[in-house]
Amino acid sequence: MSVTSDHPGVKIHKSSVVDPDASVGAGTSIWHFSHVMAGSQVGENCVIGQNVMIANGASVGNGVKIQNNVSVYRGVILEDAVFCGPSMVFTNVLTPRAFVDRKSEFASTRVGYGATIGANATIVCGNTIGKYAMIGAGAVVTKNVRNHALVLGNPASESGWVSRTGERLGSDLVCPRTGEQYRLGDDGLELVE
């Protein structure tokens, strides 16, 4: 890992490419065989795993962890503290064809603060994943996911709720790790202050 003058405070493995016009925050580490393209934004203190591509027009917040073999396409917005598991997939068009140019049809996808996307999950473009939501490994998300929702399966459906720390909640909506109490709101769960 080395630090370059183009991206001070960023550790970049020698096998990776970070274009000079990419914005990458201090404290971020970019591991083997990754490409951060010009026009992309990556926040501070992120971990970008092996073989990750972050495209022009993609936005990655602070403290994000992207595991190996993930492509973050234009229009994907990862808010702070998002976790993307290995080999999970973002799509960018709904009806792709190799012989039809659909670049003007790329749909935006937003992943809320603190959300987790499990290994090999697929997030169909145009959807929003709420804050602290947890997408199970292999799930296929075809619609919006509420805050703190646990979704599993293909197509993904709500299977329960998780706390801010990722613990599955029982019917009392109390986090077994922290004792925090939650209640159901319009967009999913919210913390009782």
How would you concisely characterize the structure shown here?
By secondary structure, this protein is mainly beta.
Distance between the termini: 43 Å
| Total strand segments | 24
- In N-to-C order, the SSE pattern is EEEEEEEEEEEEEEEEEEEEEEEE
Biggest sheet descriptor:
9 strands, mixed
Which stretches of 5+ consecutive residues score pLDDT under 50? none
Shape: globular
Specify the number of helices.
Answer: 0
Structural classification: mainly beta
Helix content: under 10%
- What value does the Rg take, in angstroms? 17 Å
For this entry, what is the oligomeric state of its chains? single chain
Q: What's the arrangement of strands in the largest beta sheet?
A: 1-4-7-10-13-16-19-21-22
* Arithmetic mean of pLDDT: 96
Task: Provide keyphrases for this structure.
single chain; mainly beta; 9-stranded mixed β-sheet; 6-stranded parallel β-sheet
Describe the model.
This protein is mainly beta and 193 residues long. The chain contains no helices and 24 strands. 0% of the residues lie in helices and 31% in strands. The strands form five sheets. It has a nine-stranded mixed β-sheet, with no helix packed on it. It is globular, with a radius of gyration of 17 Å. The protein starts with 10 loop residues before the first strand and ends with a strand.
